[in-house]
Amino acid sequence: MYQLPYATVVENTTSPTWELGIHPSATSKFKRCLDILGSLVGLLILAILFVPIAIAIKIESPGPIFFVQKRYGLQGRTFHIRKFRSMVANAEQLKSLVNNEANGFIFKNKNDFRVTRVGRFLRSTSLDELPQFWNVLVGEMSLVGTRPPTADEVIHYNQRHWRRLSVKPGLTGEWQVNGRSHVKDFEQIVDLDLQYQKKWHPLYDVLLILKTFYVIIARIGAC
What we know:
By secondary structure, the chain is an alpha+beta fold. It contains nine helices and six strands, in the order ββαββαααβααβααα. The protein has helices at about 30-60, 90-95, 115-125, 135, 150-155, 160, 175, 185-200, 200-220; strands at about 10, 15-20, 65-70, 80-85, 140-145, 170. Residues about 1-20 have low confidence and may be disordered.
């Protein structure tokens, strides 16, 4: 069983950061081959569905087709994810009007009025995630890993939280197959992410991918 590295704090001129060890999954050739194969299949699906999804988004809500956001990945490296936009274009300006139903450093509201009708369908079917297969193909993400955090989360991180980033962020993972939107406590999400690191072996990723298909088809924990 893999034991998590003990991160050490490093002071710089701006704020503390954490030196993180590399989890064996990040250097696994099997995992990388699985990521490349899976991302190519995912991008093919994206190519087929892109036009109808883009048209549906544009018809209901003026604005960009994609939602672009900076996230933190392996060892705290930043990258940008793209999702099909599922909210109104000015969602960030309206965020203060929405009650946060989650505990900790995440934001969730089951009946968020900013989510469009098309967006709810995209979220419940996980079709909004299709553009992230590009992040997987270029190596910024993996098919399976931790939930990639945002900048307003990581500014609050302690040493335990930073340990999540010893692996690449994933399109799916323990959180997605063990409650998804029903898990609204940040510390519980961290527990699931660290649990993945302890349990990981190459075939465990395959198991979680199969579980993900079941969760999506059965609409378990869908937004």
